[in-house]
């Protein structure tokens, strides 16, 4: 299977390395110092299951790759438009383009750029970051990919990607309810990213203090209410279910948005808490806590000095 990884950072680099290790023909798209390091030293994964691919196919020019079976989109949300323009030469009539980016607004941009049948849905669970050029560091053992057709069918291309993932040791699942999966992650992520980034704390203290615990739960309840208003089949008490996940993860776990704030990077808040506000407004669902998170973080959204 020919797979292109558009954006070879924490998410794309990690899962691309596993796919390549499993025998798939993987072409990474990268840029800057990370591209140069991948060219000269390959790709290294640090963490619970370290690995080193001494030679990888990597380029900043997707046109040189040609058509592929699957494009995995893994750039930060603010880079989506540029990335979509660049991947055009990779996409043939049967190519599946799958965004594993965070949030629920990501697939709008894909549907605007490609034919609906070229777009599959995806969700990625992992905690990774580029530690230095050519090196991805994973925190904790969690690693999971879910993907599927939006019409719920188990397609041959979905099965083929599943086989490639499993061969690489990825905990992967071909979902017949991918829209619900995307929202289920969104509920947790909006709660985790909104609290850890505004409070500048990991999940441990946040879930332990009654006041911040209640805030976390109420933030997630707003996301559930908005999803339900948009027809997503989320149980009414789904925020409570996600609170159990927040209780189960390591106390030092935090969100990628919190890391981005500490590093002075741009923030994806416009698509996370901001996305909840936007989708809530469309259906008349009040989202005051997500509005507060978005407002509090807006001065940092375009990046700033390092805090960590
Ligand atoms: N990392 C994680 O643990 C998880 C991340 N996600 C989501 O996945 C998405 C990606 O996040 P993450 O992997 O952390 O981000 P990273 O910043 O680690 O990786 C993105 C990479 O893509 C590169 N890139 C962006 N645009 C282009 C381009 N046009 N051509 C070539 N390279 C490009 C970036 O380069 P540059 O640095 O120069 O911008 C960067 O190296 C986000 O939506 C995030 O929320 C979801 C689950 C877990
Ligand atoms: C919550 C987590 C770590 C799960 O993958 C994530 O997606 C993020 O923080 O961006």
TrEMBL record:
Top-level division of the source organism's lineage: Bacteria
Keywords, comma-separated and alphabetical: NADP, Oxidoreductase, Pantothenate biosynthesis
EC number: 1.1.1.169
Gene Ontology cellular component list: cytoplasm
Ketopantoate reductase C-terminal domain segment(s): 178-297
Statement: the UniProt record of this protein carries the keyword Kinase: no
Reactions catalysed: (R)-pantoate + NADP(+) = 2-dehydropantoate + NADPH + H(+)
This protein's name: 2-dehydropantoate 2-reductase
């Amino acid at each position: 299977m020919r797979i292109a990884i558009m954006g070879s950072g924490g998410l794309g680099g990690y899962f691309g390395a596993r796919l390549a290790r499993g025998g798939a023909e993987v072409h990474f798209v990268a840029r800057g110092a990370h591209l140069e390091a991948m060219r000269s030293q390959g790709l290294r994964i640090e963490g619970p299951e370290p690995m080193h691919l001494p030679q990888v196919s990597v380029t900043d020019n997707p046109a040189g790759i040609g058509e592929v079976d699957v494009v995995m989109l893994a750039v930060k949300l603010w880079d989506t438009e540029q990335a979509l323009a660049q991947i055009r030469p990779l996409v043939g009539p049967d190519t599946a383009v799958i965004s594993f980016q965070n949030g629920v607004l990501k697939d709008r941009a894909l549907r605007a750029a490609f034919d609906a049948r070229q777009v599959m849905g995806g969700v990625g669970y992992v905690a990774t970051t580029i530690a230095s050029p050519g090196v991805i560091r994973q925190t904790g053992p969690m690693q999971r990919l879910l993907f599927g057709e939006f019409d719920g069918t188990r397609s041959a291309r979905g099965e083929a990607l599943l086989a490639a993932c499993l061969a690489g040791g990825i905990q992967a699942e071909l979902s017949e309810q991918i829209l619900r999966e995307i929202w289920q992650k969104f509920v947790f992520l909006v709660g985790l990213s909104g609290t850890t980034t505004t409070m500048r704390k990991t999940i441990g203290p946040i879930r332990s203090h009654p006041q911040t615990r209640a805030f976390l739960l109420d933030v997630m309840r707003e996301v559930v209410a908005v999803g339900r208003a948009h027809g997503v089949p989320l149980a009414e008490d789904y925020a409570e279910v996600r609170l159990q996940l927040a209780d189960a993860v390591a106390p030092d776990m935090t969100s990628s948005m919190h890391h981005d704030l500490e590093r002075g990077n741009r923030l994806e808040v416009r698509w996370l808490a901001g996305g909840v506000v936007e989708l809530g407004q469309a259906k008349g669902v009040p989202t005051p806590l997500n509005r507060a998170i978005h407002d509090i973080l807006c001065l940092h959204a375009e990046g700033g000095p390092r805090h960590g």
